[in-house]
Design a protein that fits this description.
This protein is α/β, with parallel strands linked by helices. The chain contains 20 helices and 27 strands. The longest helix has 23 residues. The protein binds 6-O-phosphono-alpha-D-glucopyranose. The site of 6-O-phosphono-alpha-D-glucopyranose has 15 residues, from helix 10.
């Protein structure tokens, strides 16, 4: 959460920072600010989106070659102008931007207050710059050294940038627990929470590791550890295309990302699945194949939508590879003192690869001897680097806060993993393996077919746009899809929605059903078909409005439902890849009809780097 950007070089920093902040707004958008060095230090901060900040920056201040900017997702202190970053030191000469949480800020603040420091904001971040200032006052040291010493006193997570009025050719950045990427241009440097603000200027980046400090001074980058040991930074080549982070003619990123799914799944399968040769391979699994075949248990840890992908994995791995599976909310798992054995594999699922709880969960499992396998989208992200092995989903940047193509990408990778393991363990025959990989190969075309005609979804969205509640019901592989459908609707339309296993409805939610309650059944033709028909009847008997996602050509549910959306037939274990698509579209169109900001829903952030 929170996006940070910094620039030092020959160009004007301001436009680069503003553009970068707009790209990072998915990380938080309740307030924004910039600090620029032009003559003295000039700081501008504003509650609201980056566009609102733009209007408040004076033209003369923008003529600066060094600056830092921040877009905030509030943790400590409400969103207002004062709590917005950058924060400045008491003497007004130093400025900081921070992403993360300083856990011991209260004790540091008390100590600093006793020494005469006056704080303006309620944030935890402000304490860091006062601490740096205090160290500078008491030790005749460089800014770099003061930052290093301050970081040694801090407990918590941070990605920071610090600049000083006294040194206009220096920018200091550091990280622990929150992401930070440094772009290396020709005599210029870019610092950002991810690569999207950097990509149009340079492909050469350094991902800073935890406990590292970058000192960018006089056109040079020096990376040091927090213990003051010089490190040799590894320069990665970014492969991201600029077009992939733009809307490409769609009104919203979310819609673009929904429509990208045929391509993103093809990209995910590319080079890994060749149906005609019965070939399926994930390089990341190869080297750990013995671990996988001998694993007594797979533990999937994730948050949000990624957790729903983990639930799909539970069905896949138990069904296809006959292995015990547990699916855990990372935030619960990490604090529960779980029993972890050396032959457990912990699979971390994360779009961003930066979710603080997921990262902490795998660090904990690693320390107990488990093998960690990462299923991430963002290449080079913290979780992918902290894992022993992994497989990227290759969905391309996902910018809409509500996750869509990352979910289907995660499910695609998890399906491939289950199929590979099933074949290897002999729980899947070669014939069945071949049938399933042919079916998987067909999924992008079938998604395209759903996307080619969205008229029924749009009609349902129009009919129910004023509903106060929604219930989503599914069985088997479609139970996690019900959860995901409900989450999508809640996130972007602010309508209360619950996902439930269809049979479990009788144990509570049935009490909510009346003639105003839309109930979405995810009911393609599969082994649970007869059972779900009974559940539909139970809803109809109580006058609920039935919206059903059915298999093309199916008649029984079609005839008994008030509204239907047809999807192509596929193998039961692949249905989530198709049945989730109309639910993504439904939430999108309901939200649009209600005038909601689908790409930046209130209170949410795409990348949750605080616990
Ligand atoms: C946030 C996002 C969700 C996402 C979840 C987990 O809540 O808004 O879309 O599913 O974090 O994020 P991750 O990057 O770990 O998949």
């Amino acid at each position: 959460m929170c996006g940070i950007v910094g620039y030092i070089g020959k160009r004007e920093a301001y436009p680069i920072i503003i553009k970068g902040l707009k790209r990072l707004e998915y990380r938080g958008y309740d307030s924004a600010g910039v600090a620029l060095l032009n003559g003295g230090l000039k700081v501008f901060k504003k509650k609201g989106k980056v566009s609102e900040l733009e209007g408040s920056v004076s033209a003369d201040a923008t003529k600066s070659n060094l600056g830092i900017g921040h877009t905030r997702w509030a943790t400590h202190g409400e969103p207002n102008d004062i709590n917005a970053h950058p924060h400045v030191s008491q003497n007004g000469k130093l400025a900081i931007i921070h992403n993360g949480i300083i856990e011991n800020y209260q004790s540091l603040k008390t100590e600093l207050e006793q020494k005469g420091h006056k704080f303006k904001s309620q944030t935890d971040s402000e304490v860091v710059i006062h601490l740096v200032e205090e160290i500078l006052l008491n030790n005749s040291c460089s800014l770099e050294e003061a930052v290093r010493l301050a970081l040694n006193e801090i407990i918590g997570a941070y990605a920071i940038c610090v600049i000083s009025e006294d040194d206009k050719s220096q920018l200091i950045a550091a990280r622990k627990g929150s992401p930070l990427v440094i772009g290396i241009g020709d005599g210029e440097f870019f610092v950002a929470s991810d690569a999207t603000p950097i990509i149009e200027y340079t492909n050469n980046v350094v991902y800073l590791d935890d406990y590292e400090i970058a000192i960018i001074r006089d056109g040079e980058l020096i990376v040091k550890s927090i213990e003051d040991v010089i490190k040799t930074p590894f320069i990665h080549k970014l492969e991201m295309e600029l077009e992939s982070i733009e809307k490409g003619g769609f009104p919203h990123f979310m819609l673009k990302e929904i429509y990208e799914q045929p391509k993103s799944i093809r990209d995910c399968l590319r080079g890994r699945l060749i149906a005609t040769d019965s070939h399926l391979n994930l390089n990341g699994m190869l080297q750990f194949m013995n671990k996988f075949t001998n694993a007594e248990r797979l533990i999937f840890v994730a948050c949000g939508t990624s957790w729903h992908a983990g639930l799909v994995a539970e069905y896949l791995f138990e069904d296809i590879a006959r292995v015990n599976v547990e699916v855990e909310y990372a935030s619960e798992f990490r604090y529960r003192n779980p029993v972890i054995r050396e032959n457990d594999i912990v699979v971390a699922i994360s779009q961003s690869g930066e979710t603080a709880d997921t990262l902490a969960a795998i660090e904990m499992a690693k320390s107990k001897g488990a093998t960690i396998f990462g299923v991430c989208n963002v290449v080079g992200s913290s979780i992918s680097r902290a894992s022993h092995a992994g497989a990227y989903i290759h969905a391309g940047p996902e910018i809409g806060v509500a996750s869509t193509k990352a979910f289907t990408g995660q499910v695609t990778v998890l399906t491939m993993m289950a199929l590979i393991l099933g074949l290897k363990k002999g729980t899947l025959t070669e014939n069945r393996f071949r049938e399933l990989i042919f079916a998987l190969d067909q999924i992008p075309n079938k998604i395209q077919k759903i996307l080619d005609d969205t008229s029924s979804v749009k009609k349902i969205a129009e009919t129910f746009q004023f509903a106060k509640n929604f219930l989503y019901l599914g069985r088997g592989y479609n139970f996690p899809v019900a959860l995901e459908g409900a989450l999508k609707l809640k996130e972007i339309s602010y309508i209360h929605a619950e996902g439930y296993p269809a049979a479990e409805m009788k144990h509570g939610p049935i009490a909510l059903i009346d003639e105003d309650m839309p109930v979405v059944f995810i009911a393609p033709k599969d082994s649970t078909y007869e059972k779900i028909i009974s559940n539909i009847q139970e809803v109809k008997a109580r006058k609920g409005k039935v919206i059903a996602i059915v298999t093309e050509g199916e008649k029984d549910i079609f005839n008994m439902s008030d509204y239907v959306v047809e999807i192509p037939a596929t193998e039961e274990c692949l249905q989530p890849l198709l049945s989730s698509i109309p639910l993504q579209l439904l939430s999108y169109y309901v939200a649009i009809n209600r005038g909601c900001n689908v790409d930046q829903p209130r209170n949410l952030a795409k990348s949750v780097t605080v616990e």
